Automatic annotation (TrEMBL):
This is Ammonium transporter AmtB-like domain-containing protein. Residues 2-134 form the Ammonium transporter AmtB-like domain. It is found in: Membrane. Gene3D superfamilies: Ammonium transporter AmtB like domains. GO terms for cellular component: plasma membrane.
Length: 137
């Protein structure tokens, strides 16, 4: 089994921590369920933008060498193949279903694309990254 970026360990431990945190905190209050608008949409875009750029350093350094694996990781994860495919699929489906795309939905799917490609970033070809990006939806 190849877990390229430690994705399995990260995702399982973070998922467990979030589940335990959510069970301690409990469900949202009824007044908070009525409206889910972000306070500042620009900051909603800045945060994932910083995350995406930092993902470059994360995936580049995994092979610990300047090799074809490092090049594949950069291409598949950060040069927008899986991540942009995932976001574009969301935007397309939102446009078809709701008749307009959603910035927040696109950002959420962009992050999902980063997470989905991480364990396989250095070992899949470009078409595999596209399949992973599409498979999220």
């Amino acid at each position: 089994i190849i877990d390229y970026s430690g994705g399995y360990v990260l995702h399982v431990s973070l998922g467990t921590a979030r589940f335990i945190g959510a069970s301690w905190i409990g469900p949202r209050l009824d007044k908070d369920r009525l409206e889910h608008k972000p306070h500042n949409t620009l900051l909603v875009l800045v945060g994932p933008g910083i995350l995406w750029s930092d993902w470059n350093r994360f995936s580049d350094g995994d092979p610990s060498a300047a090799s074809t694996d490092a090049g594949a990781a950069v291409l598949n994860t950060n040069t927008n193949i899986a991540t942009a495919t995932s976001a574009l699929v969301w935007i397309t489906w939102a446009t078809i279903y709701y008749k307009k795309p959603s910035v927040l939905g696109g950002v959420n799917d962009m992050i999902a694309g980063l997470v989905a490609i991480s364990p396989a970033a250095g070992v899949v070809a470009g078409w595999g990254a596209i399949v992973i990006g599409i498979a999220l939806r």
